[in-house]
Design brief:
This protein has 14 helices and 5 strands. It is an alpha/beta fold.
């Protein structure tokens, strides 16, 4: 059982499934895991999942308590929505997560995001209630509205320069997306490295482990979703893409340190699972809820394997 708890402690996917399974099953059956989950729940009080599943066309808007918490409309595998999870968790802002199916969007999503995109967010404490959409707009709002753990420099010039650096990363996203979707041509992998050279030099020039200094800042969190997803390239391409440690010593170290950040850990998904999702996305039938099923399968596999 201790082996299961150790693995559970590193798997957000298992935590989500156990949380809901315990409600419908014997609490005693899950007691050892729930003791660990209670600790995790306090640490992750800002993250409340909307049943883990992605809501589709015809689904009712979840009825949530009028507790004043922000309501984030997200999709588990969307890097732009991922940005906002990172900001909220880094700043310890309480919020609810509502996951949506982007192939069959629920009608109420358009009331919050005219294009039916995620992320979108409800701001119940603003006068009259308000909604925002677009990741960078939401991230900027959150950093100004909640001053704890500032992610941008406090000077206007410093903030403007960070925004330009985030915008510069769009050139990396552009080529990465082609590889993720399997539409790349010869030379695309090399082009990813060429465009990352700028960020290696920038990190070296800053003389710090993170773009934000001694701790991750807004640049770190805004570019991380694509760097986390880069782990899927090993599964999609074999050993064709590995970040060169000699060419990118600062970025290699940065990736390792980012994986230890509490906000990154809160929503981390393995490269293997990203690759599995991307395969379904390429086929035109994205499996948005695969993590829920994978987590459930792993729990019951352990149930049979171990002597509870």
């Amino acid at each position: 059982m201790s082996k299961v708890v150790r693995e559970f402690s590193h798997s957000p996917e298992l935590k989500i499934v156990v949380w809901h399974a315990a409600k419908a099953t014997s609490v005693g059956f899950f007691a050892p895991l729930l003791r660990h989950l209670k600790t995790w729940s306090v640490h992750q009080k800002c993250r409340e999942m909307s049943n883990g599943k992605h809501l589709a066309t015809g689904a009712a808007l979840p009825s949530l308590s009028d507790d004043g918490k922000l309501r984030l409309y997200s999709m588990r595998f969307c890097p732009y929505a991922h940005r906002i999870h990172l900001v909220l968790d880094a700043k310890d802002i309480p919020y609810h997560s509502i996951y949506v199916n982007l192939k069959a969007k629920p009608e109420w999503l358009y009331n919050r995001s005219p294009g039916g995109t995620v992320p979108a967010i409800d701001l119940p404490n603003e006068s009259g209630g308000a909604h925002l959409y677009e990741s960078l707009v939401i991230a900027d709002y959150l950093d100004e509205k909640f001053p704890q753990r500032p992610l941008y420099p406090r000077t206007p010039l410093g903030k403007a320069k960070e925004r330009l650096l985030i915008k510069k990363f769009d050139t990396v996203i552009e080529v990465m997306y082609k590889v993720f979707m399997g539409t790349h041509v010869p030379g695309t992998i090399t082009e990813i490295s060429n465009r990352l050279d700028f960020f290696e030099k920038e990190l070296q020039a800053r003389g710090s482990d993170f773009f934000g200094g001694n701790v991750p800042g807004m640049v770190d969190y805004m570019i991380w979703p694509w760097c986390e997803r880069a782990d899927m390239l090993t599964y999609l391409l074999g050993d064709k893409y590995v970040l060169d440690e000699e060419r990118f010593p600062k970025l290699v170290k940065w990736r390792s340190l980012m994986k230890e950040d509490k906000a990154v850990k809160a929503s981390y998904i393995s490269g293997e699972n990203y690759a599995k999702f991307m395969e379904t996305h390429r086929q035109g039938v994205p499996d948005y809820d695969m993590l829920v099923r994978l987590g459930r399968k792993r729990i019951f596999h352990h149930t049979v394997e171990r002597n509870w």
